[in-house]
Amino acid sequence: MLENSVLNEEIIKKIVLENYDIEVVEVNRINRGSANIFNLDNKYILKEFSSDREISSIEKEYKIIKHLDEKGLKVPSYVETKDNKCYIVYDERIIILQVYLEGYAMENNTGDYNKTIESATILGKLSLALEDYALDSTYDDWASKEELEKGIEKLSDLISKIKEDNPYKDKIISDLNRRIEVSKELLDFNFEDLKKVTLKLCHGDYSVQQLIYNDNKETAVIDFETVRNMPIVWEIIRSYSYVDKECKEGIFNLNTFIDYVKEVMKYIELTEYDLKYMPYIYIFQLVSSTFGYKQYNNDYSKKGLLDFAFFRTNLCNYLYDNLEVISKELLKLSN
Question: Angle, to 10 degrees, between the axis of helix 272-287 and the axis of helix 303-331?
Answer without folding.
Answer: 160
